Amino acid sequence: MTLVHYLVLSGILFSIGAVTVLVRRNALVAFMGVELMLNAANLMLVTFARMHGDLHGQVIAFFVMVVAAAEVVIGLAIIVSIHRTRGSASLDDANLLKN
Amino acid sequence: MTFVPPSIDWAALAPIVIVLGAAVVGVLIEAFVKDAVRRMVQVILAVVALGAALVTVAWRWTVVQAQGPAELVGGAIVEDTPALMAQGVVLICAFLGMLVIADRVGGEDGFTPVAAGAPGSTYEAQARRLGLVQTEVYPLVLFSVGGMLVFPAASDLLTLFIALEVLSLPLYLLAGLARRRRLLSQEASLKYFLLGAFSSAFFLMGLALLYGYSGSVRFADLAAAVPAMVGMDVVLLAGVVLVLVGLLFKVGAVPFHSWVPDVYQGSPTSITGFMAACTKIAAFAALVRFLYAVVPGLTWDLSPLLWTIAILTMIVGTVLAIVQTDIKRMLAYSSVAHAGFVLLGVIALTSSGISSVMFYLLVYGVATVGAFGLVTLVRERDAEGNVTGEATRVEQWAGLGRRHPVLAVCFTLFLLSFAGIPLTAGFVGKFTVFAAAVEGGAWPLVVIAVLASAAAAFFYVRMIVLMFFTDPDQDAGSTVVRTEGTTAIAVAVCAVATVVLGVVPTPILSLTSEATKFML
């Protein structure tokens, strides 16, 4: 198994995440899609770090994890407040801002 | 193995440190200062911090002029003239925006007393009765400004990514804090957050691919690796395009603009003005650095993409602005169109392109802060005559020029500047950008841009006619509320700047023309 397999896997995970965000109608599930995309990028960074034989990629992956954690805090706060207001986290219900 | 501590030039980092430090102090004030004085303390801290950072940027400008650009923090951040110019413009607009944010228009600020309470709940009603104030707004704005200061100066992709998140995350929250129309505000916040997180995931994937291509995320190493493009060019091109997607999303270019109208309409209006101006300035500055300094060798590969995006942005922004009936939404689409005009200067890939982009952003920024500042003042009345939310429907502004001439004249001035009428700053901005694009060989784009400006003038002029020559609709019942003064100051400064930059632009133009040398 070569390292290229990991790159392909990361590409597949990234695509699954992107499709999840675009297709699923629940804000929480869409948000999980974003997390999947971030982790796909992490896998790619670590694989490239292995290929290049330096540590930068692995260190960047840690930064990404911290950013993802911060994003979860903010995202859940927003989704929970919406859920409290409307009783659902559906993205189709959030349609007041339209012309 | 020994640890080599990086040498850090704190004086050069001063603007960033001041703003972020004030933000941290602001969080402590939230915890330790009494309710009665907390808001006042926060406002003073925020305004003083932004003013001090602006002064420091001016001082660093003179230092860089004398000693040349420098790398800071081991090369993660650079201090060169384009970075300082962008930081200065961001700070000017953030300072003016902060004056609008801090104003208690009509006796109350524009933010909900409890963001955690559901709209219409007894909890919210209680908080309202007790007169609670959500003063977290000020540190959040400062954190966001801190990210915006790092963004144009970042010299590697990781720093750029962190700065992107630091500037975005507070804005997602701020978008959801409006006092009135909280459902719209929460919805704006949700949409901004999901789409923003989505686009930053693309940015991150681009970062990973570029790291894979070059083995480094440093701009200098990337720029050195690009000319050696053999074989792996798919990785390189995909990486560059994904990074551009992340940046163009922040700029609000078509087809990454779908969040702009919703978020601009739903957010508290003072926040809309701040973010419309400052986010765009920071993002364009980073975009220019990335395109000019990191991947200039890819111009041929990227230009079809950039041309398409610029054309779509100008046309879609203008056409959709014409059909809007909500004033905030109209200004939002107009800002999309403006992003298209600035892209012209970016595509030019000449040194006059950089300076024209900086000038345009300054012009656009002050007019935007001023226009949204005025929107906060025009309010609806309910059946009992109580003043309620903002009168954002266009027809509610009918006849405003007769009852409130000063306000209407200022708004007219900003609209004329947006439209690019001579003797306003917008004209000089458009002229310099178009001239740079022609110089760069992008004359077909300029033809489209001129046509789009002509079409855009239609809805700006329609608004002016509505304010001055239409009889007010009795049912609309809009009214203008009193400010505490800070909004008036901000709008006055913006109006004066719009006129002065239009009549005597030479000093500022010569200043921006010095901001063209990127350092890697």
TrEMBL record, chain A:
UniProt subunit comment: NDH-1 is composed of 14 different subunits. Subunits NuoA, H, J, K, L, M, N constitute the membrane sector of the complex.
Originating species: Ruania alkalisoli
Residue spans crossing the bilayer: 6-23, 28-48, 60-82
Membrane topology: Multi-pass membrane protein
Enzyme class label: translocase
Compartments (UniProt record): Cell membrane; Membrane
Keyword terms: Cell membrane, Membrane, NAD, Oxidoreductase, Quinone, Translocase, Transmembrane, Transmembrane helix, Transport
Role noted for this protein: NDH-1 shuttles electrons from NADH, via FMN and iron-sulfur (Fe-S) centers, to quinones in the respiratory chain. The immediate electron acceptor for the enzyme in this species is believed to be a menaquinone. Couples the redox reaction to proton translocation (for every two electrons transferred, four hydrogen ions are translocated across the cytoplasmic membrane), and thus conserves the redox energy in a proton gradient.
Protein name, as recorded: NADH-quinone oxidoreductase subunit K
GO cellular component: NADH dehydrogenase complex; plasma membrane
Reactions this protein catalyses: a quinone + NADH + 5 H(+)(in) = a quinol + NAD(+) + 4 H(+)(out)
Superkingdom, natural source: Bacteria
